Amino acid sequence: MATKSRFSRNDIGVNNSIFNAIRTTIETAFYGNNVTPVTSLKEAYKLAKASPGTVVTDIPVYNPQFLGLDEDAKILLFNDGAVSGRAAAARKIMGEPGVNAGEYALKICEAIYQTRKKKLYHAQSIVGLDTDFSVKAHLCIPETQENIMYSWLLNFQAINEPVSEMYASSKEIPNEGDIYIFSDPDWSHPDHPMGLTFFDPEHNCAAILGMRYFGEHKKGTLTLAWALANRHGYASCHGGQKRYNLSDGRSFVAGVFGLSGSGKSTITHARHNDKYDITVLHDDAFIISTSNGSSVALEPAYFDKTQDYPLTCEDNKYLVTMQNCGATVDEDGNVVPVTEDIRNGNGRAVKSILWSPNRVNKFDEPVNAIFWLMKDPTLPPVLKLSGAELASVMGATLATKRTSAERLAPGVDPNALVVEPYANPFRTYPLADDYNKFKALVAERNVDCYILNTGDFMGKKVTPAVTLGTLEAIVEGKACFKPWGPFSDIEIMIIEGYIPDLADKNYVDQLQKRMQDRVEFVKSRDTVKGGFDKLPSDALNALQKVVDEAREA
Question: Taking the complete model, does pTM exceed 0.90, yes or no?
């Protein structure tokens, strides 16, 4: 077994690093006499279908028996009131400055006590879909929240006979217990008006309180799985990965990293008009082994926006559950969803693994190239980075814009450009861990590194056609990169209509300021959170070199 579910009585106690106050508090809740195990996906579907407020559409689930559902299963829709996104401001992480373990242990104790008169469900899933990395996760959640539980089992991997066999033969991860998550979406507390998502990553547990949005449960589970993977020799990736199987027998594995709305799902699933034979690993969550460069997907399903998918879109064939979308009746009297974010922003759906026609759970082939997806108006559509330090630190200072997937605290400018290291706001371990692992992939495994600007370049939109055309040229080995002005570690591919004018003082000034912003961000890590995310000096030096060279333009 990959993680430990049961313990010898001699191993239980303060001398076992798996146990602490918060872990024990959360796990204990799973054994109350008000907790009912949910042992199959079929059972979870029936509970969600009957849950108050569920809209049972008249659209059948595609190939339900393959997914482990009955053949009459329908797409289920559930809406979360005024809540339709994540709340980063509600995240508290054990070990970070200002997070008092005793305070939160008591709050979690009380939250669990307040559910004692409720019926609770206990569901189990598998995170990590290969014997190289496979973790058991447990969710405890109250009655009336069956739709969250059902989507959680779909998004990860509900346990059935073949999954149990895979898990039983998976590599043991030493000194790690299963993941335990306690959730009560109806919880409220005056100290936490947006709710509370509390993580103790070293002990693989979390409390998700006052949070209705399914995305909190998906990303909360991944938060713990990524932290566990980081401790055991993997680079944890919030992005997509695909393999181009070329006609000459070569393969090209590309990893794309970007936040929601950056285009990572579009790029991951793009079939380039069937120009290539494409195999997909995943579009949101995977890990890369630092020892051999192989990659493992963490989830079978996809949690995708519905904004760009009209009702008649072929992709909607693979929907299983929907969140925060409308419904209406079609000309045949069938209840059907209303997509395209008409009801609200960030309408979402869980799509089955069948959405991608060629899907695998592991790439044995090492990754060939990493693409940082930026939305920085001073950057042309594509740049190639040389030098492992610059390649990694540009990922650590990945710039993007906020999207409707996030609920913002009062006073936060939704239009401001922000830096999100490695496009992963769910990291709970020191930033230097990611920096060193991505640096090693470039330096030791010869992984190429590129920046793709998927936003606009000095006011001109970078279209998907430009981005995908650039990617095709790189995959085929036809991309022509040449030194970019004074920059010794940056090369540019000339694309008509997007050529930076280094003779334009205004442009150079803006470029220099954006690079200086990255320098300041790295410097700020020395003090933010007590230096928890401080980066090695070579990261700052690599960025400062770019700023200094920009002055020469």
Answer: yes
